[in-house]
Records
---
Amino acid sequence: MGTVLAMAAIGALTSPPMAGAIVAHDGGSYTWACVFSGLNFVIAAAGIFALRGRLCDWKLWVKL
Amino acid sequence: MPNYIADKLGRFNVTIVMTALSAVVVLALWLPGRGDGAFISFAVLFGITSGAGIGLGPVLIASISPIGYACLRTHDDKYLFRILLDSTKPVHMLRHRILTYIYSIFICCKSPESDTRTDPVLITVEQPQTWFRKKRGIAGSLIIAGSSLGGVVFPLIVQVFAWVPFLPWLLLEH
């Protein structure tokens, strides 16, 4: 638990400045910051899906 | 609500769906959204989908960690820690010691030898995971909801007690 939270802290610390830099670079527009946010969710979903696949041998219809 | 469903249908399943839905809401509703209606809809939907992901995160970790296997209905931290030590490899113990040392320096200022579970965040997140098994999802969601509510209430309380000497300085708000 501590290891995962420590790793999550890196993302929580770095993402807001990155989003701010993207907004500043884009002249105050949130368009690319929105894309950055959406892509992070896509990557997160793919990571959890991969973890689930490892845990249940890639069986789709399993309660896990 | 998603966490309640997660206890019924599988926590990993619901987390994957909710995280993917978060991406959809961001890219399909926020990105092209114009007007107040779109943004209010986005706020409501994103709160549901992302909140489920945040609330289920510790639950998923507990499901695949030694804490999840211990799952003892006890509040005896020393006994629980002994179980954790017995069920982890030496490299995990070393990692735990390093993290404990970091926590003790930056968060609690305790001796690393005094107690291994010094981080209040870890204790708050971990303890219910060892207590609940069948309804761990809804329990985790209530903890995160309470934590979020605290984030809303705390600034209001600080405003009321702003006259207290040195309080703003203590909160580093000056």
Note: Chain B has one domain: 2-170.
---
Amino acid sequence: MSRVLAIARNTVREVVRERMVLVLAIFGVALVAASQVFSPLAMGEGRKIVTDFGLAGSTVLATMLTIFLGSSLLHKELDRRTIYAVMAKPIRRADFLLGKFAGLWATTALLLAGMTGIVLAVVTISYHETPWVVLGALVLTLAELAVVTAIVIFFSAFTTPALTAFFTVATVVAGHFAEDLHYFGGQGGSAAVAGITEAIYWALPHLALFNARGLVAHGIAVEPERLLFALAYGALYATASLIAAGAIFERREFR
Amino acid sequence: MIAAWVRGRAGAGSGLLALGACALLVAGAGAVHGAMKERLARPPVDELLYYPSGLLVRQASLGYESAAADVAWLRGIQYYGEHRLTDQKYEMIGHVMSIVTDLDPRFLQPYIFGALVLAQELKRTDEGLALLEKGMRANPDSWLLAFETGFIHYVCRHDYEAASRYFARASRLPGHPEYVDRFAAFATQRSGNEGMAILLWKRVLATGNKYTQDVAARELRRLGAEEGTR
């Protein structure tokens, strides 16, 4: 466990070096500017719009950072040949991957929490009411980030950074169309097509489960039952992705 | 050679173990997803609300439908504002508000604003009422939508019986302010009374947005109740 934590700490340091504070600063300035521009145009719906844009913006930024930073994490270690020094130590490859996952997730989670804090502060200052319900959406988005991080780690275990980013974006987008795929697969096609679409449907991440942004923008709290289900789904899916990544990475030959 | 064979067997064994664990966990995740869908399922009417025009926009928004609804709302408001200052033709307002409400069925203002413009400005009362009906199907607990439906029935359609029914419904829903009870009582006693219409428009003047307040001020002037209007 201590080895995993050491790798996670190193990953956090490595990712933080990519000027993450700059992202936070840009996000804060953009949100304050957006709240000033949109509030007078929104006909009394400024609070909802600032909350919506703030939560959507923070989720997009955190997801993009996860994909683009995560896709090169393993490749950098291979490129700089630092992985040989790590592997020479009594550490399993699966632990190495787990450390990378934990470090990347912790960093983007911290960033997301920071951005959500900015949303809370801007709404509180502008509309004199703190929308605490956004914390429910934050918890769900943290779980979503864990799933996306695990998917990035899975693809990076066997392919190049560019393909990792491409496959992850494709998986995330396809996840949003999973319900349609399931529906059309079951509509009059052959049994084989129905079986394949069914398998793809279950294999794709159902990221919509983690989306409570629209709900909290209306001041509605996320139900504890929904939180529990989504967290359980996220934990199971992320663990499955990491086990698969570990199994592939164990067999990978470094050149 | 034997050592390599043993290592290979061990590798294959751990691979199978990983595969089995993955299958189990994905099956577990699937079971959780299935249970969640069943327990937290929305009423089927929500599904139909997304057809036909909002479906593509909703799909293209990739989970950011609430923010997409805000963009459509801002665009709709700009559209109304631009045409109000020029040709006063708002033909697309119903379509835009329909897309906004397809994307975010809980967003109440587009139902109210869209219905008022359709019924009062374009004299398309049925379309305005249909938009409010859609809102009430998606938000059955909203006293505001029931009240606005009563309002449109009273001032645009002069259907005082229907208005009275909707005001009464609004007065039974949670969170309604005290004035809703008063309107519910007045509507049955004062059907067709101009004083009631003046009271209703004064409420829009006091609580509406910039554009709906302008419409209310104009209607109050027409009814000869200019006191308190700009």
Note: Residues 22-140 of chain B form one domain.
